[in-house]
Amino acid sequence: MALTLYVDTARWRAHQQTVLQQFPGIVPVCKGNGYGFGHERLADEAAAFGSDILAVGTTYEAARIKDFFSGDLLVLTPFRLGEEPVPLPDRAIRSVSSVEGVRGLVGARVVIEVMSSMKRHGISEEDLPKLHAAIEDVRLEGFAIHLPLDRTDGSDAVEEVIGWMDRLRNARLPLHTMFVSHLKAEELARLQQQFPQTRFRARIGTRLWLGDHEATQYRGAVLDVTHVSKGERFGYRQQKTAADGYLVVVAGGTSHGVGLEAPKAMHGMMPRAKGVARAGLATMNRNLSPFVWAGKQRWFAEPPHMQVSILFVPGDVAAPQVGDELVAHLRHTTTQFDRLVDR
User: Fold this and answer.
1) Helix axes 185-194 and 157-170, enclosed angle (nearest 10)
2) Are strands 216-228 and 3-7 parallel, antiparallel or unpaired?
3) Could you tell me which of 289, 295, 294, 296 has the C-alpha nearest to residue 249?
4) Cα 209-215-221 angle, rounded to 5 deg
């Protein structure tokens, strides 16, 4: 019995087609754990809808995916001098975010990242004049800009890209291709209209693979159900049960990503209040699990184990049976399923 990812394949692929139509020349992104689907599956999907390029996170991911995808591979993590060499085919394209990095990739295919308001990495405006000589020794595939998801200062994403287009043009650098991230379809269309001689290519992962939340569902199989009375001890730490009920053992533990959660950026009083409440409950060993039974997320009876979780279902609720599957609200990018089922 397993933690299973169920995919409504027709619906999932229909959503892909919607995104493809909105973003001509899209660069599908397959990084990390393959957005929960795995590298091989997403490489197959990208090949099926005819993509000529696939973006990956690291050189190590590129080395694994190269056998599943025959097109170009764009490595998003910038090249650094002295990094461990990883054998890659000539169809691999390296991102680079410094003049020194460009100089260190003689003969390679490169995309040069510029510094956006993300301030994560990128070429600065002051370094643009130094690029003229450096790009003579590489095969320049274009420039790239990685934009923030939220713009709390009210600034305009298109204007930020235009600003960099003007800087690159004033520096007399080639503008045949610009790779962009986190733009809306209408924003991309505005840019393409304003700069018809430049090909804008949107690098998209989350919106492409995970944009239709109803197309996928995780479920964990129930492995055991044990009735317990108030005060009985159980589990690794031999805690006492707070009430009569059932201990439900379900497939899905820390090795699957259950119980792991990325920090969230909170805006407003209500989300902050909920965060404080959750933290307070956690100090009392009360942690809400992602598993749903009888219409409610159920509490962990104790912290999840490596491959299973133990939940507490109160006695006034009908207990699940061994073999039932519990829906699990899990984050795709941190979850590793046992099996994937297309429906």
Assistant:
1) 30
2) antiparallel
3) 289
4) 110
* Segment 90-148, tens digit of pLDDT: 999 999 999 999 999 999 999 999 999 999 999 999 999 999 899 999 999 999 999 99
Token representation of residue 227: 């009735």
Query: Which tokens in the block code for residue 136?
Result: 């003579």
Query: Tokens 């942690």 map to which residue?
Result: 287
Cβ atoms 221, 2 nearer than 8 A: yes
CB 79 within 8 A of CB 60: no
CA nearest 170: which of 141, 130, 128, 200? 128
* Residue whose token pair is 């379900």: 250
Confirm if 19 and 208 have CB atoms less than 8 A apart: yes
Location of structure tokens 């610009």 = 178
- CB of 36 closer than 8 Å to CB of 329: no
What letters, b where the CB count within 10 A reaches 16 and e where it falls short, cover 118-145? eeebbbeeebbebbeebbeebebbbbbb
Q: Which amino acid is at 330?
A: L
Number of helices followed by number of strands (H, E) in the chain: 9, 18
| 276-333 pLDDT per residue, tens | 334 443 434 568 999 999 999 999 999 999 999 999 999 999 999 999 999 999 999 9
- φ, ψ at 273 (rounded to 5°): -65, -40
